[in-house]
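pipeline/complex-builder :: batch 7 item 3
reading input block
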Amino acid sequence: MGVERPSGHVLVGSYGAELALILMGTSRRRVPTIAASDQLDGQAIAYVMSDAPLIGEEVFVSNAYLGESARTETTALDLLRWLVILTMLGGAVVSIINRGV
Amino acid sequence: MRIRLGAALASALTFAIGLVVILGLLLPDETLLPQTWVNLIRSVTSVLLQLTTITAALAILVGIFNLLLVHLSRLFKRERGFLYSLVLIISFFVVIITYFFAREVNTLLLENIQRTVESALAGLLFFALVYGAYRMMHQRVTWASVVFILVVLFVLVAALPFDIPALQEIRAWLMSIPVNAGARGLLLGIALATVVTGVRVLIGVDRSYRD
């Protein structure tokens, strides 16, 4: 990576904190970078150091950034997310009611 | 509408294999299906999962050969940075040979070189992170980036060995409630996206494997 001169980097994978070392090299050469990781450490580093970080599930809907084709996917993801939120809130309410009783 | 046979076949195969694996993994012990069917589905699932593991292992081998070929070509052509390629190739063969013929030398190399280099890189991480924080504040000052930097600074200062109970309590609260909630939220998001991607592949909407 230090020898070749690419016009951009896409770093997607299971990166940990070591992602910081790669991104430091790319930013020193002023090469634009997209970074995403399935580890939380890597996501935090990507957020701080890359030009376009993909946080959490964003990497799975990356084609939605490029066109309209994945619109259904993002809508389904939003619906599922709301479902999880409502389930968690419902669980919390039920737990509070049970404690009250 | 023209349908390509290869694409249709790939979709059908993916759908069928995905369905069998899901059934094999999720079927409970007691179902309405006959036990022989359940056993058949489970054994097919097991074979398919083994095939996946073998394919992944083969992909790693192919990756290693590709890495060697790229660096050997760089070495023979005397391209820029060929010395790094030389170091990589020598290290690769030394590790392989010592693993088979002198295991104690291999352990010695691992403990004295690999771990030392890893520790040095971990030390460098601190400077990389400080540089990253500076760069982020230099490029885009948003409320999210300000909060991020303030929390990082606070957690780092509170981790110092000063005996200030209030600081340590706030740090413990930050780590256990907001940080934990955020981390779980991210992980839940990833899990949901994985499910959605799986469903897309199963119903044939995702075309990445057949184009």
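note: The mean pLDDT of chain A is 81.
queue -> next item
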